[in-house]
Design a protein that fits this description.
There is one protein chain. The chain has about 180 residues and is mainly α. The protein has one domain. Helices cover about 65% and strands about 5% of the residues. The chain is built from 9 helices and 2 strands; from the N terminus they run H-H-H-H-H-E-E-H-H-H-H. It has helices at about 5-10, 15-20, 25-35, 45-55, 65-90, 115-130, 130-140, 145-155, 160-175, and strands spanning about 100, 115. A two-stranded antiparallel sheet has the order 1-2. It is globular, with a radius of gyration of 17 Å.
Amino acid sequence: MSREPEEDARAARPLDHRIADHYESLRELARQAVRGPQGQRLLDPTELVHESYVRLARQVGTTPERRTEFLALAAVVLRNILVDHARELATLKRGGQMQRLTLDGSGVAATSEIDLLALEEALRKLAQLDERQARVVELKFFGGLTVDEIAKLLGLSARTVDAEWALARAWLHRELSR
């Protein structure tokens, strides 16, 4: 598949400009990701965006132009930042404070609380059992992608993504309630 001249011109632009194209999407993900229980902030969204930028900049040449592909990459970066932050908090004197997030259908937002470090461990286990389900969770939970966006990105039907999300969510709830 050949690329359009406009796509080639955009891809040739510096990383700063390519990330700027997706800055608002990244800001919205950061705003969602830093909310804890009862709306309390776990991190400053601007700090999270800046840390995401730094980590994305380390991957020069891999920042995609299309929004969905960018959000898929950002999901991985945000997940890593949030887990690193949760680990730092957990190592504070007397065990620190554990971050609590939720696993519902709308990404990083609120109904039942879960521990981010426990989620990370559970996602790693899930990836060993079913890598596709773990990727769906990552894209939906950390990337805030819709079922249709995930389906297109992974080359699946929306119905398959819905089924994978439901199975993964049930498995994670069971795993996290142990």
